[in-house]
Design goal:
Immunoglobulin-like, Elongation Factor Tu (Ef-tu), domain 3, 2 helices, 22 strands, mainly beta, 6-stranded antiparallel β-barrel, about 5% helix
């Protein structure tokens, strides 16, 4: 379990590589959240070397942070998860979490980030919040894997994992797309203190730039031609920005060009990768026989990803399909 100092000294700092949630964020920059008790503004410095640190971000509010007090298992996405609850203990006061009406949740309220053991963050939302003890809550009626973070779900995310409420206390660091995946040295501590103070901490971090990552396609389908034996695979793409309007005929592409990779899976191996410039691709009978032998497969497991020129392969969606 994480031990947090509650005297004036080092601050707890979370670096969160998050997707676009509002659409106006810097695409490649991590979001920062800090907590200390008592609170002092936290200055975050960055350098490509061991010297020459420059101020990058100043955090002026303590974030609502804490940890899981029970394991969190995966659940359904794109609808309410009524089976799981998130049990948390906060570092700060009791009155930091509260229930919200459904429409306020749909409008972006009660956004919680949960860090798994690999350092990835699931973005979820909760409608109900019950205070169960001193600084402890049960959060329920969840929206899971928001903004394409379904790949961060685990079975389970262990008790003790860090959580952060995403609100105005969180700030994005300054990081441009050309700097993504480059390791930088970071230092943070009380804004009024000198960089050499014992209360400053340091870390070397690089960020994938999840705001640039294409979301996984959905609704994967397969249809075999009864005459030729060819299989047409199709799907519906999602967009990582400006996709919430109900009046749109189709969501924006949000990428330089439309491109997909489709892996034909055989157990843990990839039998073949197909490329497509639209949301469907042909898996010919000849290719099927080359991959599977003398009999055309009755079922097919595929993984479909949208490909970005800037980011590369996006979040994958896997489906097993009957033919």
């Amino acid at each position: 379990m994480r031990r947090l100092r509650t005297t004036d000294g080092p601050a707890e700092l979370a670096f969160m590589d998050l997707p676009l949630l509002k659409g106006n964020e810097a695409e490649a920059a991590p979001t920062l959240a800090a907590y200390a008790s008592p609170w002092r503004d936290v200055a975050v410095y960055r350098s490509p070397t061991a010297t020459g640190f420059a101020l990058n971000t100043r955090l002026t509010q303590p974030a609502t942070m804490g940890e899981l007090t029970a394991p969190l298992y995966s659940g359904p996405t794109s609808r309410w998860d009524r089976g799981n609850s998130v049990y948390v203990r906060l570092y700060g006061d009791d009155d930091q979490l509260s229930a919200k009406e459904d429409l306020l949740v749909f409008d972006g309220g009660n956004v919680l980030c949960v860090e798994n053991a690999d350092g990835e963050w699931e973005v979820l939302q909760f409608a109900d919040a019950e205070l169960t003890g001193s600084k402890t809550y049960r959060l329920s009626r969840l929206l899971r894997g928001q903004a394409g973070t379904e790949g961060a779900l685990r079975d389970p995310v262990a008790s003790g994992a860090r959580i952060v409420l995403l609100d105005s206390a969180c700030e994005q660091a300054t990081l441009v797309p050309d700097e993504r995946e480059l390791p930088f040295n970071w230092k943070w501590g009380p804004a009024a203190a000198d960089l050499s103070a014992a209360s400053f901490q340091s870390a070397t971090r690089a960020f994938e730039g999840v705001g640039l990552r294409p979301l996984s396609p959905v609704h994967i389908r397969a249809r075999r031609d009864a005459v030729t034996g060819d299989i047409t695979l199709s799907w519906i793409r999602r967009t990582r920005r400006n996709g919430d309007s109900w009046t749109q005929i189709e969501v924006p592409l949000a990428e330089e060009r439309e491109a997909y990779a489709v892996d034909i899976l055989g157990g843990d191996s990839v039998k073949r990768t197909l490329s497509a410039a639209e949301s469907s691709v042909l898996y010919s009978a000849a290719d099927q026989l080359a991959d599977w032998g003398d009999v055309l497969p009755a079922t097919l497991t595929v993984a479909v990803v949208q490909v970005s020129i800037t980011f590369g392969r996006g979040q994958s969606r896997t489906a097993t399909l009957s033919l």
